[in-house]
Each structure stands twice: as structure tokens, then as C-alpha cells.
């Protein structure tokens, strides 16, 4: 089979019959399948699509009951696709189905990835607000900076990849990712990328599901696809919590001195213990949220291992700092360096012991 076209849908019952009709015309004679991936839309898009599949044998419909989200819907379609070219297109008639012919032609002449673009010759946008134009411009610029290979319209949801591009990357792709195209572009070092212009039309039926936090989501996504490979976002969160622990400890020492007659040694010991506990809970409910420990026994076990690991970290911190002192390094720098190495150690061991396992909660 030549082409598998994946169409993610959510509440597109009015658009899907028109789109399938248009695709049937444009792709007549192409050996193809069209896979509609619907997340159990309340407007019963899946049912409308299934009715259509009686007339069009190349139309497959997946109704997902538990998984949700645009990126994971696209990946679910790719996973069962049988074609050599895997394409994605929105259901809301904003993407121009005529461009699919150019997609196929580019693929035949050697492209590995083809991107439908609003910003090359033949491309354009109908009725876009200045705000949406501005956001799109910022997004394109950020993507150019962050990724080794970019395109004129990296936010496009209209593109195709050769099957081998999908197969060789599928295990690294983030199904909760924000833009599936970015995931491919970030890993496309040896791929030939082509762009095809198309005019992005206004939506007629239904409404957009894209949230207003796109730029924020994009920054996170680009971070994860670039520097995040060395320092994952999880590590940054862990670091932020680590720094917060210093503030907690300082505050506890202050309280001890103001309101008790405890010696400094005791105050420090108490402050260390309390900051370890706040770090544990903050990490559990923020840094490692998808894998967080729930239930009294799991949390107790987590607290104990976390303590043991922190103790190991403290010893590493001290050992490194003392060693550096013997080379005449300044005490603050020696300690800061020891602290940083200990943080990496704490993080790695905690990921593999305290919060090991696969993400379970959303
Ligand atoms: N299965 C599934 N699950 N489909 C979804 C979901 C979901 O959670 N959310 C959205 N969709 C489907 C919609 O039904 C539509 O077919 C397509 O995904 C795109 O959603 P829209 O809500 O129409 O997105 P948009 O028009 O705001 O954004 C488009 O333009 C952006 C660039 O400006 C999309 O093409 C984006 O991918 C693109 O980046
Ligand atoms: Mn749309």
C-alpha cells in the first residue's frame, strides 16, 4: 500500500463526511487507507465515520475509549498503518487535500519527510488574527533556534513521513508531546525534508481544541527535544525543589532560634530533617507526579529510601568538598561543587529506586 492517511478527530461530525468525500476524489487511483482516530467524541464522529466506511472500503475507524490527545491519536494511527507513506491531516477542512498529491510526488522523488507549509510559495493563511500570526512567528523562530533542522512552518499539523522514519523513531517519541512533527524534526538528522505550500482555511463547522498556552507548551517541548536530552525537565524540577529545601532549612533554623532554646547543632539537625521531608513530598507530587507514590505504606517506604539516598548524597558532598580543599580550592566553591555532584547522584538514584517504574498517573 502506498499511503496511510491518519485523521485525528474530536467533535468533527459535520466536517468528516465532507472531508472523506473530498479525499475520495483527490486520491482516486492512489492505493491508500484513511484511518480516522476518534477519542469517543460526544458528537459521535466515530459513528458518522463508520457509516461512511460502508461506502469506502479504504476507510478505517478507531474509536478510542481510554487514551486521549491529539499526538497520541496520531501515533495510534501510525502504529496500525500499512502504507509506505504515513500522513496526517486535520478533519476540520483547514488543510487542503489537494496538497496530498504533492506530498506523494515529493516522497516518490526521495523525500523522507514532507511538511505542508503556509509559509512557502503556494502557501498562505485565510483570516488570521494578528495575535495568531504573532504566535506563529514566535513559534517558528524558537523552533529554528532549538532544533538542528527546521522548516518554514514547524507548527504544521499537516505532514507526512516515510514508514522507516516512524519505525526508527517511534520508541523515543513522546505520546503526550505537544507537536508530533517537532518530534520527527528533532530526530531527522539524515532525512531529506521537503515543504509543500498550501492555504490554511478558516474553520466552518465545530471549534478548535488548541489551548491558549501554545507558546508555553512549545517552549517546554523544544527544551525537552534539545538541552532536555542532557538535563531532563524532571532534573530541573528536582533542582528547583533542592533549592527550595535550602530556604525551608533556613526558615526552620530561624524559627528554632526565635522560639526555642535549642542549641545550634540541634536546630541544624531539625532543619535538615524537615527540609528532607518537604523535598520528598514536593518531589513526589510535582517532579515525579506521573509516578508518584500513593498510599501510606508506599509513602513510608519512599521516605525511608529517600533518607538513605540523601545521606549518601551528603557523604559524597563532604568527600568531594574535602578533597577539593586539599587542592586549595575556596571552601564555598568546593562545597558548591560537592553539592552539585551530590544532587546528580541523588537524582539518578532516586529515579531508579524511590520513583522507579513506569508512569501510572496522568
Ligand atoms: N483524536 C483526537 N483527540 N483528535 C483531536 C484532539 C484529541 O484530543 N484534539 C484535536 N483533535 C483533532 C481535531 O478534531 C482536528 O481534526 C485536529 O485534531 C486539529 O485540531 P484543531 O482544534 O482544529 O486545531 P487547530 O486548528 O487549532 O490547530 C491546527 O493548526 C495548528 C497550526 O496553527 C492544527 O493543525 C495544529 O496541528 C497546527 O499546529
Ligand atoms: Mn483546526
UniProtKB/TrEMBL annotation:
The protein's GO terms of the molecular function aspect are: dolichyl-phosphate beta-D-mannosyltransferase activity
- Which InterPro entries does its entry note? DPM1-like, Glyco_trans_2-like, GtrA_DPMS_TM, Nucleotide-diphossugar_trans
Segments forming domain GtrA/DPMS transmembrane? 237-355
CDD domains according to UniProt: DPM1_like
Identify the Pfam families for this entry: Glycos_transf_2 (PF00535), GtrA_DPMS_TM (PF04138)
Q: How does it sit in the membrane?
A: Multi-pass membrane protein
Sequence intervals crossing the membrane: 235-254, 266-286, 298-320, 332-349
User: What's the chief localization of this chain?
Assistant: membrane
> Does Flavoprotein count among this protein's keywords?
no
Where's it found, cell-wise? Membrane
Q: What keywords does the record list, in alphabetical order?
A: Glycosyltransferase, Membrane, Transferase, Transmembrane, Transmembrane helix
Where does the signal peptide begin and end?
none
Example GO CC term: the record gives: membrane
State the similarity comment.
Answer: Belongs to the glycosyltransferase 2 family.
Q: What is the name attached to this protein's record?
A: Glycosyltransferase family 2 protein
The source organism is Silvanigrella aquatica
Source organism phylogeny:
Bacteria, Pseudomonadati, Bdellovibrionota, Oligoflexia, Silvanigrellales
